[in-house]
Each structure stands twice: as structure tokens, then as C-alpha cells.
Design a protein that fits this description.
Elements lengths: L1 H18 L29 H4 L9 H8 L15 H10 L3 H4 L5 E4 L4 E4 L28
């Protein structure tokens, strides 16, 4: 009985040790990286509409090309509420949630400035191609990388 128990424990130890061995690392240098990634988020459009209306898209048009050559995220779970535009877009592009990436709404109260601030407003940047303040926006308030 003791010999069987000892053999069983040795076998379990070997299996556990084998399961914890380090797998060889993937050579990242061999993976082709794109120079540019373009992300498209369509508010209020359910993902299944891409397929429901597939036959109505032009043969050489955008949606068919995106579905054939691109990448789609389908049937996702949104682990936060409310699903406000700024929160959702930041989640999509950072892979993080609002309490981590810091964008908790389209606007919020800033107690230091004593006013409501827009999620991407940034008075330290210059508008390109205009004299207005409308383009003074940046991702400065995002607390994580994209």
C-alpha cells in the first residue's frame, strides 16, 4: 500500500513539474508587424449586421473587403456600464476598462479646475490647419498605452 501511494505521489509530482516547465518563447522578430492599424468603431451597430446585410454590399466595396481581408471583433462582452462613446472607444483601443484607462465618460467634473472637462480636451496642443480651439484634443488623459 505504501509503495503504491509513494509511486502515485512521485507520478503526480512529475506531471506537475512537467506542466510547469517553460515553453520556448516565440521569436518576435519573425512576426511581420503592420506599419499602420486602422480601427473602425460604428456606434449602435450590432456586429451581426455585418453578415445580415452582406449580400447588399458592393462586390468591391468597403465592408466586403474589411470582412474578407480585415479583422472583426464579434460577440464581445462589455464589462462596464454605462456604455458611453468615449469609454467604449478607449476600451476598444487599449484593451482595458474605464477604471484602469481613466476615461470614465465623455466629460467629467475636474475638482482642480472646478469645471467639467471633455475627455480629450488639451489646451497644451495646437490645432492643425485651423485657427480655432476646436482641434485642441489629445489622448493625454488616457492612463494606459494603446
Amino acid at each position: 500500500m505504501q509503495k503504491t501511494l509513494f509511486s502515485l505521489l512521485c507520478g503526480l509530482t512529475l506531471i506537475t513539474a512537467a506542466a510547469q516547465t517553460k515553453k520556448p518563447a516565440v521569436n518576435n522578430a519573425s512576426i511581420a508587424r503592420p506599419k499602420l492599424v486602422v480601427g473602425i468603431v460604428i456606434d449602435q451597430m450590432r456586429w451581426d449586421f455585418l453578415y445580415r446585410y452582406y449580400d447588399q454590399y458592393k462586390a468591391d466595396g468597403g465592408f466586403k473587403r474589411l470582412l474578407g481581408e480585415g479583422f472583426t471583433c464579434e460577440n464581445n462582452m462589455i464589462p462596464y456600464a454605462p456604455t458611453i462613446t468615449a469609454c467604449g472607444h478607449t476600451c476598444a483601443y487599449t484593451g482595458s476598462v474605464p477604471n484602469v484607462h481613466g476615461i470614465t465618460g465623455n466629460a467629467w467634473w475636474d475638482s482642480k479646475k472646478m469645471r467639467s472637462v471633455y475627455c480629450s480636451e488639451d489646451n497644451e496642443v495646437e490645432t492643425v490647419g485651423s485657427n480655432t480651439a476646436a482641434g485642441k484634443m489629445s489622448p493625454k488623459k488616457i492612463l494606459v498605452t494603446t
